[in-house]
Amino acid sequence: MRWLDLTLESVVHDVACDEALLIEVDGGQRPATLRFWETPGYAVVLGASRRVDRDVHAEACRRDQVPIVRRSSGGGTVLLGPGVLSVALAAPFHEIPGAESVERAQHYVMNKIALALEPLAPGLRVEGSGDLAWAGRKCAGSAQRRLRGALLVHCSILAGLDLERVDRYLAQPERQPAYRQGRTHDQFLVNLAAPPSVIRAAIKDAWPLEAGEREPPPPALGDLVGEKFGNPSWIFRL
Q1: Among 99, 119, 166, 169, fewest CB within 10 Å belongs to which?
Q2: Spatial separation of the C-alpha atoms in residues 94 and 99, rounded to whole Å
Q3: Does residue 213 surpass a pLDDT of 70?
Q4: Does the predicted model carry a pTM greater than 0.70?
Q5: pLDDT(216) > 80
Q6: Interstrand relation of 43-46 and 68-70 (parallel, antiparallel or unpaired)
Q7: CB contact set of 35 (below 8 Å; sequence gap of 6+)
Q8: Would you identify the CATH topology of the domain 37-210?
């Protein structure tokens, strides 16, 4: 498995890059890859089937010039920005125990991350369908995308995000895990008490990784941006 530190010029390119890595892994053109990225500006990222009118305070995003994009994986809508570490694992099914089940694969990946970060956040555990919770509050969310022979697990970890921004740009989700207990964003979310650089290093240590790589973006990236992730008809299709 490789690791890749790669943040691109926009959040559109970043979500498209995760998809491009998955396509390459599925096609046997690259080994399993663990990617880390951090967008320097705020951005709302919709899950594949989420609706803008239900999940997003779109007028506040417009006023503040916060882009709204859509990823190809499931899960809920999230706010990315300074203080959020995005982690993406693209791996063949045969390298993920329980990969025949969406739920078991998600739990395996998120539990591995939880164990890596537990020394930084004692009591950290997997909750719901793939959250990480610390002292009963959510500090990371995740989502999954599957192709014929490989899967992609996204994880966004809070490590210094301005949590007031979440209420400003995101509505209360319609579907909530039981452990949320109806709490608002500011009552429910919590930042880990460690910077993204420390969190990144701990996660890398949890996997048997080859040396990191510096490489250009995947060749399919441009087409994915133009045809899908940067296309308003895809972003605002729901």
Answers
A1: 119
A2: 7
A3: no
A4: yes
A5: no
A6: parallel
A7: 3, 4, 5, 6, 17, 18, 21, 87, 88, 89, 90
A8: BirA Bifunctional Protein; domain 2 (3.30.930)
